[in-house]
Design a protein that fits this description.
The protein has one domain: Aldolase class I (TIM Barrel), CATH 3.20.20. Helix content is 38%, strand content 13%. It is built from 10 helices and 8 strands. It has helices spanning 19-30, 56-67, 78-82, 87-100, 116-129, 185-194, 212-221, 239-246, 259-262, 270-289, and strands at 34-38, 73-76, 107-112, 134-137, 156-162, 203-207, 227-229, 253-257. An 8-stranded parallel sheet has the order 2-1-8-7-6-5-4-3. The protein is globular. The protein starts with 18 loop residues before the first helix and ends with a helix.
Length: 290
């Protein structure tokens, strides 16, 4: 079990840092808005590892070591581990991150969304079993599905708001009534997250890079919140448009790229190729900010 200050209260005088503190510190040190998503698919591994789920930890640890100084965060996707009965490898990877990149925050991409005692168990899984610094959540069941995660002081929670998949239109882009001018569902989520749901300052929002206009709208509604923005890279999101729409000096963005970095090469030099792609993406994001 990985423990990382799961029960400590943040102390401005020098105690445990909050997730937002870690995020801002990582942004300063690395000069980066890039998050590397750790979505290990053994079928796409380099040739010498391909098809072997026992090597998930080895693959991910090599990516981490090659890119840790270039990123604002890492984001392991729990399904890629669970599908291969590799939760023990995820625990090892989290320990590796704590040892070798202790100042880089880790967002567990779980997209949990349940209530009551079940949500409490999911929170325990994210913050006590795996020692994550933040977790992704679905807010569809309301605030009582989020509240158990906020009982862990200093930890972060990113709420799905306007996701990068086309099917997001089915719900997220619908107006709350047929009256013209009524807010869309994703706008309502952003207002709740910026306002009454965020009294502890632990929340952020997930907004897809494939919808820069919506990123800009979410940023207007949630001017101080961190945004987790997937979709740059293999999904086709535009780095410059993403940064222009979402980045503000007092509100960090975490721009995720997974496949384009993880599978930059099928050779034994895959980690070095991943570093080159991560550096290219980081520099493109920074140039857009400038």
């Amino acid at each position: 079990m990985v423990q990382r200050d799961a029960g400590q209260k943040p102390n401005p005088a020098g105690g445990a840092k909050t997730f937002l503190d870690m995020l801002r510190g990582a942004e300063r040190r690395s000069g980066s808005m890039l998050c590397v998503g750790l979505d290990p698919d053994p079928g796409k591994f380099p040739t010498h590892l391909r098809g072997d789920p026992r090597r998930i930890y080895d693959f991910c640890a090599a990516i981490v070591d090659a890119t840790a100084d270039l990123v604002i965060a890492f984001k392991p996707q729990i399904a890629y581990f669970a599908a291969h009965r590799a939760e023990d490898q995820l625990e090892r990877l989290m320990e590796h991150l704590r040892r070798n990149a202790p100042k880089v925050p880790v967002i567990l991409d779980a997209k949990r969304g349940d209530i009551g005692s079940t949500a409490e168990q999911y929170a325990k899984e994210a913050f006590e079993r795996y020692g994550a610094d933040a977790v992704t959540l679905s807010p569809f069941m309301g605030f009582d599905s989020i509240q158990p995660y906020l009982k862990y002081p200093g930890k972060g929670a990113f709420l799905l708001c306007r996701t990068s998949n086309p099917g997001g239109d089915d719900l997220q882009n619908q107006r709350l009534s047929s009256v013209s001018g009524e807010p869309r569902l994703y706008e309502h989520v952003a207002r709740l997250a910026q306002g009454p749901w965020n009294t502890s300052g632990q929340l952020g929002l997930v907004v897809g890079a494939t919808y820069p206009a919506e990123i800009e709208r979410v940023r207007a509604l949630a001017p101080t919140m961190p945004l987790l923005i997937p979709g740059v890279g293999a999904q086709g999101g535009d780095a410059a448009a993403t940064v222009k729409a979402g980045w503000r000096a007092n509100a960090p963005i975490v721009v995720n790229s997974s496949r384009a970095i993880l599978y930059a090469s099928a050779g034994e030099g895959f980690a070095q190729a991943a570093r080159r792609e991560a550096q290219r993406t980081r520099d493109a994001l920074q140039a857009a900010r400038a």
